[in-house]
UniProtKB/TrEMBL annotation:
PANTHER family: HYDROLASE, PUTATIVE (AFU_ORTHOLOGUE AFUA_2G14860)-RELATED, MONOACYLGLYCEROL LIPASE
InterPro entries: AB_hydrolase_1, AB_hydrolase_fold, AB_hydrolase_sf, Epox_hydrolase-like
The species this protein was found in: Fictibacillus phosphorivorans
Transmembrane regions listed in the UniProt entry: none
Protein name: AB hydrolase-1 domain-containing protein
Cited Pfam families: Abhydrolase_1
GO CC annotation: membrane
Length: 293
């Protein structure tokens, strides 16, 4: 199914131009926030299952897709200003936020700091475990952590065809949803004449560095909106994520945890229907007292 949308150019607080997408629909508004290195088109497998329930808006995060990629502005406060600019542009007073991976972190920070603009937040395998610290995945310094990515964040490809071939071989389980995303993805032409990801290695490093020492539990303590946790069952740190989610839920007024069987990190590509059903069900079960916040 071809996804229909209107494309909008949106100016953020520091002059960075963002690209937003209005997918139409009616009802409460969903704002979709994609993962690190992705684009808003990653949500296309999910949208047909949600279109009859909501008005849907998405956008390319700064440094991603058709949005500008400045040298600066990758703090979470910057991402909050960006999301606020998107909502203001589309005249959205309050919305349900849906995040994937890094998009969950963007949504969580916004929910903690801009409480009056958020109806609820759904975290799809993101902001459900820290990178470092007591409840973190890694026992290493930021410098050691970044060193592991040396040469991996922005590889060269000889052509768009090679780019697509490598993803078909490595981005598993390969299916039509992934194939459609890669077919629509327009890699950037590098200064060396090669082809690469839209988001540069330098931008990726800045965002990874911004994330590394954050304790998401401090953000959850400030949240009053309902939260849906959707950890991916197939991820190696699934059990650690469940333990972290239990800690995060302690201070939340209302939350649910849903595990979709055999779900992967980017589950919109593998379990779009089940993911949409979980989101719609969660919203329908939010207590009236929470909806009036």
């Amino acid at each position: 199914m071809e996804i229909q949308f209107e494309e909008h150019k949106i100016c953020s607080h520091d002059g960075t131009m963002l690209t937003g997408y209005d997918y139409g629909g009616s009802g409460d508004t969903l704002v979709l926030i994609h993962y690190l290195g992705g684009t808003a088109k990653a949500w296309h497998p999910l949208i047909p299952f949600l279109k009859n329930h909501y008005r849907i808006v998405g956008y390319d995060l700064r440094g991603h897709g058709n949005s500008n990629q400045p040298d600066h502005g990758y703090t979470f406060e910057d991402t909050a200003y960006d999301l606020e600019s998107v909502m203001n542009h589309f005249e959205i007073k309050k919305a349900h936020l849906i995040g994937s991976s890094y998009g969950c972190m963007v949504g969580l920070y916004f929910t903690a700091m801009r409480q009056d603009r958020v109806l609820s937040l759904a975290n799809i395998d993101g902001a459900i475990i820290n990178d470092s610290g007591e409840h973190g995945l890694y026992d290493e310094t930021l410098e050691e952590h970044l060193a592991k990515f040396e040469g991996q964040l922005d590889p060269d490809y000889e052509s768009v065809e090679e780019y697509q071939k490598v993803y078909k071989e490595q981005w598993l389980p390969w299916n039509k949803e992934r194939a459609n995303y890669i077919a629509d993805y327009e890699p950037r032409l590098k200064d060396n004449g090669k082809v690469g990801n839209i988001t540069t290695g330098e931008t990726m490093m800045k965002i990874i560095s911004e994330i590394y020492y954050i304790d998401f539990l401090t953000w959850y303590k400030k949240v009053q909106s309902p939260i849906l946790f959707l950890p991916a069952e197939k991820e190696d740190h699934f059990q650690k994520s469940l333990t972290f989610i239990d800690l995060a839920k302690r201070g939340l007024p209302y939350s649910q945890t849903v595990v979709i069987p055999s779900s992967t990190h980017l589950m919109m590509f593998d379990h779009g229907k089940e993911l949409a059903e979980a989101i719609v069900k969660f919203h329908s079960e939010i207590p009236i007292s929470q909806k009036t916040l």
